[in-house]
């Protein structure tokens, strides 16, 4: 069966997306290890606790270290998920295994989840929303373009 180029190479779109996400989270972890200070959005902290970030730090000076550690741990979980998705994309999705097409639908949910997490931590901005829309567009493009590869017409 002759495949169209967009069916044959659509997996590269998804692979590129997860690769970029993996690098992003890896750099986030490295920046924390190298001493970069992680600060949550002041308004988000105040909404959640009723106190400003500086007031919380005055109560417990180790809170900043704990917060940085927690964010890096979450990033490690994200990287683990991304690595698993990269393997699924590179092998069964590329080969056209139907179950992998269904599995890829977790990626849009993941994109929304990391946006919500990031928005709660650093605040929602127009840049975050634009990044999410672009990310969702690329993910959906990578899933929908090869539809006929996974579900050929009879």
What's the quick description here?
The chain is mainly alpha-helical. The chain contains 9 helices and no strands.
Question: Which sequence of SSEs, written as H and E, runs from N to C?
Answer: HHHHHHHHH
Structural class comes to mainly alpha
Largest sheet: none
User: Can you give the helix content as a percent range?
Assistant: over 70%
Q: Which residue ranges are poorly predicted, with pLDDT under 50 across at least 5 consecutive positions?
A: none
**Structurally, how many domains make up the residues?**
1
Q: Which overall shape is indicated by the principal axes computed on the Cα atoms?
A: elongated
Distance between the termini: 13 Å
**What's the gyration radius in Å?**
19 Å
Average residue pLDDT: 85
Instruction: Kindly estimate the percentage of residues that lie in beta strands according to DSSP.
Output: under 5%
What's the helix count? 9
* Annotation, overall tally of beta strands: 0
């Amino acid at each position: 069966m002759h495949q169209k180029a967009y069916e044959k190479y659509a997996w590269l779109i998804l692979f590129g997306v997860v690769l970029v996400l993996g690098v992003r989270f890896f750099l986030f972890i490295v920046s924390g290890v190298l001493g970069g200070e992680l600060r949550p959005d002041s308004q988000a902290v105040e909404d959640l606790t009723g106190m400003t970030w500086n007031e919380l730090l005055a109560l417990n000076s180790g809170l900043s270290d704990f917060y940085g550690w927690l964010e890096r741990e979450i990033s490690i979980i994200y990287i683990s998920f991304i690595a698993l998705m990269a393997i699924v994309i590179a092998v069964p999705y590329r080969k056209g295994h139907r179950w992998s097409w269904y599995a890829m639908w977790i990626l849009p949910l993941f994109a929304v989840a990391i946006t919500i997490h990031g928005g709660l931590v650093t605040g929602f901005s127009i840049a975050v929303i634009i990044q999410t829309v672009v990310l969702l567009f690329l993910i959906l493009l990578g899933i929908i373009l090869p539809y006929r590869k996974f579900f050929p017409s009879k």
